[in-house]
Amino acid sequence: MSILSVLTNYNCDLALATIPVQITLMVYYFATRYLPTRQSRSFVAVLVVSLLMTVSDIVSSVLVSHGNMVPIGLLYGSTVAYYMLLVLLSWLLFSYVAEEIHAYRMISSRFRLITKAPLFFMLALVAVSPGMGIIFSFDGNGQFQIGPAYVSLYLFQWFYALLAVAYVHTCRETLHRIQRRRLYAYNILIFVGTFLAALDEQILIISYFYLLAILVIFLGAQNPESFYETRLDAFNSRGFRSLMAEALGEQKYWLIGIAIKDYSGVRELYGDQQMDGALRKMGQFFHQLVDRRTSLFYIRNGRFILLSHWPLDEDKLCQIIHERFQSAWHSKDFADIFLSAGCVKMDRSVVFFSMAELIRCLRLAMDRAGDPAYTKDIHIDAAFNREIQRRVLVQQTLSNAIENDAVVMFLQPLVDAKTGAVVGAEALARLEGPDGGFIPPSEFIPLAEANGTISKLGEQIFAKACAFLSMPAVRKSSVEWINVNLSPLQCRDRTMPRRFIRIKDQFRLPSSALHLELTEEAMIQADRLQESVRIMREDGFQFALDDYGSGYSNAGRLLSIPFRTIKLDRSIVVAHFEKGGTYLEDIIHSLHNQGYEITAEGVEDKRMADELIRLGVDYLQGFFYARPMSEDDFLAYIRPKGKGAVSDDAEENLP
Ligand code: C2E
Ligand code: CA
Ligand code: CA
Fold this sequence. Notes:
Blueprint: H1 13-31, H2 38-65, H3 72-100, H4 109-132, E1 136-138, E2 144-146, H5 152-170, H6 177-199, H7 206-222, E3 228-229, E4 234-235, H8 237-245, E5 254-260, H9 263-270, H10 272-289, E6 294-298, E7 303-308, H11 314-326, E8 329-331, E9 334-337, E10 341-346, H12 355-369, E11 378-380, H13 382-403, E12 408-416, E13 422-432, E14 438-439, H14 441-450, H15 454-469, H16 472-475, E15 481-485, H17 496-506, E16 514-518, H18 526-539, E17 542-548, H19 555-560, E18 565-568, H20 570-579, H21 583-593, E19 597-600, H22 606-615, E20 619-620, H23 631-638
Parallel strand pairs: 10-11, 13-15, 15-16, 16-17, 17-18, 18-19, 19-20
Antiparallel strand pairs: 1-2, 3-4, 5-7, 5-10, 6-7, 8-9, 12-13, 12-20, 13-14
Helix pairs in contact: 1-2, 1-7, 2-3, 2-7, 3-4, 3-5, 5-6, 6-7, 9-10, 13-14, 15-17, 17-18
């Protein structure tokens, strides 16, 4: 027995039951801050039209059941309203899918326009039915009559469900597996619903299935809380991505990024609870700063973004933000917190065409804004974008080269101060750029360290140094060893010693032919390092401390590793020639007394070479002798001079 059986011949139970659910969903959705995206607006349209359709379905079923007592105009009016809402809803359900998967990026605008044609055609058919009876009509007794094109109502719904499936299929590459499945499930529900509705028209079942479909969307993609950081009353990074996904390829928004300087440091200093309190205060402050048309995002690690589709005065806002950060963040729950922040401004000429590009750019900009070393605001402009593109290019070139073992080893001679002979060489990595030129290590070594490929790169250079040393021409020369640079990160890898020993053994080289250069930075994680160094020292490898005098020198750390050589950094050598004094001499003296050999780097002219030799340095390296060169050039360099003696007129190597 149906609830409304006194009123209608139709079974309205399912349709009735959906109404409170639909209202709950709607109230919840409107009460929570939802993202101002086209996708959300499309979902709101679905919610509203679905509720109206359900109500009109029930109302018209009641009226139609009493056709003989109801004025014909009212019968037509309510039925036309119901069919129109049904048609509109089918289209909206399809159109939501197109928005969620950003189909407009893959599907041409002309095709999209064509897909609207059936909608207008159906609306027209419904609209003219009262006169022409194409879809339906009422006879003299107010009895409902099916029209010749009645079936097109179902065909229409299936058409859009199928079109949605086709869209999902077309865009499948860009969709996550779960999202794809969810969208297929959504359309299957619509399909099943319309099919069952066609089987038995006495039961108002369509709203029920449409509601299920709506729930599938709500749970997976449209729950406002999944885009929201309730604590801070701001959207989260998922929300940011969703909003920006719709803005790709166009520059229709204004953006300001705010990053707290040294966030992890200050968080450690003040503690989690205090920092969270300060972040809440900041959220409130940013909200007050702008109107409701501007959305606030919190994207973790002390980073906020203000985004608006309406003009923002970035300069003024950033100034106000900086001024605010001059004073403390405080409330009654926590002590005063002093923070600084950097701002990111986006130039209006910058347009992004992919999410990856946008995120990469913004991340770097925010990293810099939050870096205490950058005191100015970061401007994302054409130059910044070029820099990013360059990084991407270097990154790709680097991973290709590492993949194909194509990183080139250059060699720079190490000259014996007493004899002038080339006794060794430093191996320096070179990356061949797409234009044939070389990308300098200062550009690609930090990237290799950041993405973890430095170990592989270092190992490849090491293997190349071994291969070079084992060449007969080199064995016969005065070159006794090659210095290979080790990155601090490489040293953390506990398997490194074993692998290096294996490579060296393959080339049947004595370990003493390989000197490994470490910077002081590497020694900060001394415990991990020491074990590796111990294993390699036992095997006979020699160690050199690189860049001595370039940063903080810590005698204690120096003692912890059994270095054979200390390499004086170019800066300390240059300082001696600029400022004079006995500082360099004292250092050399003291290091010699401790038993170290000394190499001077950055020897650029004869005057420097002579002076360093006078000061008692053991080995010399620099442009005065030779710039780093290819293996072939190095072979040629050591060959004609018999045992590798270097002539006095080495100045020709200078630029
Ligand atoms: P580094 O280890 O201090 O290498 C010496 C750098 O000084 C080289 O720069 C070299 O070309 C340059 N140099 C040599 N003589 C002179 C001179 O007389 N005047 C001046 N101004 N510079 C001179 P390069 O080749 O650009 O390498 C830069 C840095 O990249 C290296 O500094 C090293 O830290 C890193 N690097 C290079 N290859 C590798 C590698 O295979 N692995 C690792 N981990 N780092 C590497
Ligand atoms: Ca070095
Ligand atoms: Ca160095």
